[in-house]
Amino acid sequence: MTGPRGQTTSKVKPANRRAFLKSGLGSAVALSALGAHPADSPAQTGPAIVTGRPDVVVVGAGAFGAWTALTLRERGVKVVLLDAYGVCSPRATSYDETRLIRCGYGDREIYSRWALRAMDLWEKRQQEWNQKLLYPGTRLSLAAHSTRQLELERKVFDRLSIRYEILQHDELSRRYPQVSFEGVEAAFLEPRSALIKAQDALLRVAEEFKRKGGTIQIGRAALGRASGRQLEAVSLGGNESVAAGSFVFACGPWLRKVFPDVLGKTIVTPRVEVVYFGPPSGDARFSWPNFPYLNGSGFSLYPCIDRGIKVLPVTNTEADPDAEERVVTAAQVKRARDYVALRVPALKDQPVVATHVCQFEMTKDQHFLIDTHPQFDNVWFAGGGSSHGFKHGPVIGEYVSDRVTGIAGDPELQKIFALRGR
């Protein structure tokens, strides 16, 4: 299995956990055990050890929460993973068939770097679990004309030695005759991208977490009793609560509902309506691996794997993750069909074979939010996936686990992910 910093370990070692956490992770020994050095990584207070209770409670079993819980457990930490509706609930942002992993982020190099690391970790997990989760393919970022965004992206890819091409209209049409490139002057081509089987992946992460000794419980968590700047427990309603040394709230679109005073204006939750069109009978041109992954003009369009050709129109309508009806609207189906008629004319009369409604959880600057609660030193936020968080799940698990267990990490990343100023 993959351990901290990409090291390989053979099994969880609970006996080491007590020694590892005994001093609150504030000592040089604790930092060294995680592969860090005291001079490089300022110590923070880690989860306390109290017999009979978990070291860390993670709230939210989506991509950020499940990977954090698994990573902590593989480091020997005792973890309880709570979710209001259970793993892979249809209400969750991380639900649905697939998510795209890509390296193109304009000039935001940190996410390109993380995507490279994430791809390596996904591939290792796929091999470790002997389960196909990645569907490698080519991503095309479509542009009406050559833009500054394309140039910035090119510079990042050059610095990181990531393969790419910038193709003009005629070459695009030659390589991908299934696609109409009307109104497209150029596209940024990423040969190393992939669709991830999102629902299958999360179910497997949760399964591995349980197999390695983690506890999963359904419960709607809220702040419970506290002492000064230390939260002692989360409340699950009634007289039920769960105590721990540290708490990670990775509950996606529910973050602003759990913390309205702190995050109510920091995170928005736009509704997303996904439409799947059936491929023509006997025609494999629109199925993986024969069709590229298309992004551009407020739409994403991905090839058929199991469910159909996936079309995702971007909207700005706010969604309530608890109360939202998971039924697509006729207006959004029309938008999806109009885009298909423009971009893939051969599919314009194909039937809708499946639909899905979820929501993103977006920060205003579309950076992740990974920071402590302003009133509690042992309460962490891990959210703000901003429509690109799922792919980074394994790296998020590493980063949040480091922070919770006392490794400060890169100061620049701390600034980017900080709550202050947002």
Protein architecture, described:
The chain is α+β, with helices and mostly antiparallel strands and 422 residues long. The protein has two domains: 4-92 and 200-267 and 365-417, FAD/NAD(P)-binding domain (3-Layer(bba) Sandwich), CATH 3.50.50.60; 270-359, D-Amino Acid Oxidase, Chain A, domain 2 (2-Layer Sandwich), CATH 3.30.9. 29% of the residues lie in helices and 25% in strands. It is built from twelve helices and 22 strands. The two termini are 37 Å apart. 43% of the residues are buried.
Number of helices, counting only DSSP H or I runs of 4 residues or more: 12
| Distance between the ends | 37 Å
CATH topology of the largest domain: FAD/NAD(P)-binding domain
Radius of gyration based on Cα positions: 22 Å
Fold blueprint:
Elements: H1 14-21, H2 28-33, E1 56-59, H3 63-74, E2 79-83, E3 98-101, H4 109-129, E4 134-143, H5 148-160, E5 165-168, H6 169-175, E6 186-197, H7 198-211, E7 215-218, E8 222-223, E9 226-227, E10 230-231, E11 233-235, E12 241-243, E13 246-249, H8 255-258, H9 260-263, E14 267-268, E15 271-277, E16 293-296, E17 299-302, E18 309-313, H10 330-343, E19 352-359, E20 362-363, E21 369-373, E22 376-383, H11 393-404, H12 411-417
Parallel strand pairs: 1-2, 1-13, 2-7, 4-16, 13-22
Antiparallel strand pairs: 3-6, 4-6, 5-6, 8-11, 9-10, 11-12, 14-20, 15-18, 15-19, 16-17, 17-18, 21-22
